[in-house]
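Database export, one record per block. Field names are fixed; values are copied verbatim from the stored entry.
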Amino acid sequence: MLRKAFFLSIILTMLCFSLQGCSLHKEAGPLKTDLIDSRVKIVTSIFPLADILQNIGGELVEVTTLLPAGASPHTYEPTVEQARTVARADLIVYVGGGLDDWILKLASVAGKEVVIVEVMDFLEGFVLPSGPAGMPADEEEVHDHEDGEDDDHFHGFYDPHVWTDPFLVKEKIAPSLAEILAGLKPEIKSEVMHNLEIFQGELQALHEEITATVRSFTRKHFIAYHSAWNYYASRYGLKVVANVEEFPGKEPSAKWLSELVELAREHNVSIIFAEPQLSNKVANVIAAEIDGKVLILDPLGGKGLTGRDSYIRLMRYNTEIFQKGLQ
């Protein structure tokens, strides 16, 4: 009996130490996890914004893009898993202007305080000189067209693709995002501003490179598939004659297609610039009518896309495509 009691005592003692060890291990786990990652969690709607923020934030940020490569922000429907990603964000950055407002629905159910930034707000007071046919579209005109009114007479433009102007990114968009990031976490401000300075130097070099390339173009007029290139054209002295789809996903009328063919002939346009995110079926029809061809521009790019997997490489790619069509 004594021997049994002795062994039982040893077993109970060992069990006790084992349980205490488990308890201590569980308590230490969360403390260690809290120290693993202090990066600012950023969610963006599109890849160009994500890459701009990655350049500014470097290793201080964790950036997630919601829009998959090849998808259009105009028609995208976010997933449930992406809603969970947004719920964990410290900062949400989107373009605005009707391009990617779907991200606001996700933010509204995030269940936590999160800073939401609309890039279009940075450009208050910036006026694009003109759109196709010299007709800037005002906000009232845009809403009328979206409601389906006066479709046959609306040939203005509506373009929230502000990032297609690298100089505007350098002067307004990147510095504004850097200020917001530094304000969100003041202890990283010096590093953020250092990263910004380096990135602005790269953007300036890109701007000068594009300027020199476009100067050699023998043609300046072009037709785009949708209204995504007015900022680029305005910056570098090109002219958007018209857009095939005035609003993405809205099929052009037969009357407008006929007018497009006449505009192309009038301005000696032989290239229709389409995009990988949108069907180029109509672009091919117009190109056949004018004995021209279709080239593919890409306003969005994305990870894993060769030559378009950073903002700077994306804009170089598009300049090369313009060069093929206009030189």
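Remark 1: Confidence is low (pLDDT under 50) at residues 1-36, 133-156.
Remark 2: Strands lie at 40-44, 61-65, 91-94, 115-118, 221-226, 239-245, 271-274, 293-296.
End of record.
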